[in-house]
Every structure is written in structure tokens, then in C-alpha cells.
Amino acid sequence: MKATIDGNALHLGQEGLSLYESGGYGRPVKGGLRLAPEEGLYLLWRNRITVTGHDAPSLLREYSRTPGFFRRYLVYRDLRERGYALQTGPHDFRVFRRGERPGKGHSQYLVRVLAERDLVDFDRVTAEVATAGNMRKQYVVAAVDDEGELTYYEVKVDHLPAPDEAETGGQAEGEAVGAVALVPVAGAEWLSEAGFGKLLDSDRIMLSPVEALALMDDRRLSLVRDDVPLSREEYFAAAAEYDAELLEKAAVYADLRRRGHAPKTGYKFGHHFRVYIGGIQHSPMLAQAIPAGTALTMVAISRSVRLAHSVKKKMLFACVHTDGIQYIEFARIKL
């Protein structure tokens, strides 16, 4: 079958409709079949069609003048070789279940193609995940590295469960020392039972700044410095001098606590928190607090996900907005 270039697409006559019927290629139009550039190049590479004035290398050169085309083609070819039918669309590709195709089946994935150094805008990702969810599809990022290797990530906006009952506990008084708070053990044993702090010695519990701030917000902790009462705002200002990320970290810590989880520092794993759930001994999640409007490279996200998976944890990016916190999970998948 011979195709002709028609603007930013290829056009086949009526005989091309057999490609749509058998493999879900292209979109039927008046007089034949319209092929997206990725589809046309793939079919030419597989010797399924010919293109007037072009072989596969020259057509690749032609289309690669459009930024991002080559990596989209690599993903298209990979998914086709894995047995999927797919169509181009606003999310780069709409991928059908194996054995199904356009007109005879339903798409399962919406795929966004990114290069390893591309910035991931978390606000945009959240919106696209929501769109995919409304369409009852899984949202997938296909990351293409500099050597053309592909990695697929499923992305979810994780609505973490809320506790059945509010967390209970007593009242405590302590002293601010630098950025931390020290609380006498006597009368404050409930802190350790609830997963707050660690013993500095047999007499005192040391609370991290995020722990102290969460307890002050709940009016369960009062602090002094040099025997002078310290307000929450005064303590925050003093602690923030040691930690430029304290605002976001404190917001995420408090939110996880309200949801019934027990966050602890995730420093050893290179992230803000490791998160315990329901009293289990293993923390199933790592969480990184990030301000609204943050964008990270796919390299940075890949690094975080690989580390989390290597220690059998989920990787959550906690985006701090004025109206709440959204937890975005990236997880490697095999298609």
C-alpha cells in the first residue's frame, strides 16, 4: 500500500482501511485512512506500506524536525512490539488492552512521553491523573533516557485513608533547645506510645521540630525557652533558621498524623519521611514534601522511585497547597 504525506500525517486510500480493521492503525477519513506520523513511520519500518518519496530513514529525519517526535516514536514502536494497539491523542498515546483495538475494545492507559531531563510539573500531572481517572484509565509516564531505553511509571494521586478515631494523648510541657524540644519522661510516657520522639536519656524525650509543631498545633505541648513561654510562631521561626524546608515538612507531617499514620525521619533513605501505618514494624512508604508549583526532572523522580522500590516502599511526593496536600505516587510498572 502506498501512502502520501498530507501535512503532518500520511494518507492511504481505501485499501488502507484493512490496517484499521486488522490492527487498529490510523483513523478512517473520507476516501481512506489517516495515519499519525508515529504510525506511518512504524508501518514503513515494518514494510507494511510505502511512502512516496521516502524510505524509513528519510521519513524519520523529516518527522524528527518536530521536537519530541523521536522519543514518541520509540515509545509507539515499543508498545506496538509488545502487542498493544494505540492511538495518538492529547496525552501522547491512548493504549488499548491487549487483543483490543479502536472500534473494538476499550483503552486502558493514557501515556505521557517524557525525556529523562524533562521537568515534571506536579500540578499538571495531578490534573492529568484526574482526567485519566474520570475516563477510568490508568495514567502512565513513559520515560525515555539518552540511550533510548524506556521505563514506564504508573502515577496515582493517592488519597490516604483517614483514621477511624482521632489520636488521643495527654498534655506535655517541654523546653526548646536549639531547633528541638526536650520533654521530661515523667508524665509524658504517652508520647513514646503514640510514636513521638526518641529518648535522649532516661529522663528526657527529644522531639524533632515537625513533631513539636504538630503537638503544639493540637494544643498538647507547651514550650519554654530560658523559662519564658514560647508561642508556636516563635518556635517555628527559631527552628526554621535550621531548616529551609520546615514549612512544607511540618504541613505534611501534621497531615499524615491527622490521617492516622506515624511519620519518622526518612533521612537514611534520602527523603523527608518514612511512614508507618497501623502500628506495623515496617514503613511501607517514603514521602517527600514539596511546595505547590514544584517541578522535578524525571532523573530526580527515577532516583527516588528506584531507592524506594529497593527498600520495598512506595514513593509519594506530597504537594503542599493552601487548601490541602496531594500525595502523588510514582511506581515502575511492566507493560
From TrEMBL:
<dbReference type="InterPro" id="IPR011856">
    <property type="entry name" value="tRNA_endonuc-like_dom_sf"/>
</dbReference>
<protein>
    <submittedName>
        <fullName>Endonuclease</fullName>
    </submittedName>
</protein>
<dbReference type="GO" id="GO:0000379">
    <property type="term" value="P:tRNA-type intron splice site recognition and cleavage"/>
</dbReference>
<keyword id="KW-0378">Hydrolase</keyword>
<dbReference type="InterPro" id="IPR036740">
    <property type="entry name" value="tRNA_intron_Endonuc_N_sf"/>
</dbReference>
<keyword id="KW-0456">Lyase</keyword>
<feature type="domain" description="tRNA intron endonuclease N-terminal">
    <location>
        <begin position="1"/>
        <end position="54"/>
    </location>
</feature>
<dbReference type="InterPro" id="IPR006676">
    <property type="entry name" value="tRNA_splic"/>
</dbReference>
<dbReference type="Pfam" id="PF02778">
    <property type="entry name" value="tRNA_int_endo_N"/>
</dbReference>
<feature type="domain" description="tRNA intron endonuclease catalytic">
    <location>
        <begin position="248"/>
        <end position="327"/>
    </location>
</feature>
<dbReference type="Pfam" id="PF01974">
    <property type="entry name" value="tRNA_int_endo"/>
</dbReference>
<feature type="domain" description="tRNA intron endonuclease N-terminal">
    <location>
        <begin position="173"/>
        <end position="236"/>
    </location>
</feature>
<feature type="domain" description="tRNA intron endonuclease catalytic">
    <location>
        <begin position="69"/>
        <end position="152"/>
    </location>
</feature>
<dbReference type="GO" id="GO:0003676">
    <property type="term" value="F:nucleic acid binding"/>
</dbReference>
<dbReference type="InterPro" id="IPR036167">
    <property type="entry name" value="tRNA_intron_Endo_cat-like_sf"/>
</dbReference>
<keyword id="KW-0540">Nuclease</keyword>
<dbReference type="InterPro" id="IPR006678">
    <property type="entry name" value="tRNA_intron_Endonuc_N"/>
</dbReference>
<keyword id="KW-0819">tRNA processing</keyword>
<keyword id="KW-0255">Endonuclease</keyword>
<dbReference type="GO" id="GO:0000213">
    <property type="term" value="F:tRNA-intron lyase activity"/>
</dbReference>
<dbReference type="InterPro" id="IPR006677">
    <property type="entry name" value="tRNA_intron_Endonuc_cat-like"/>
</dbReference>
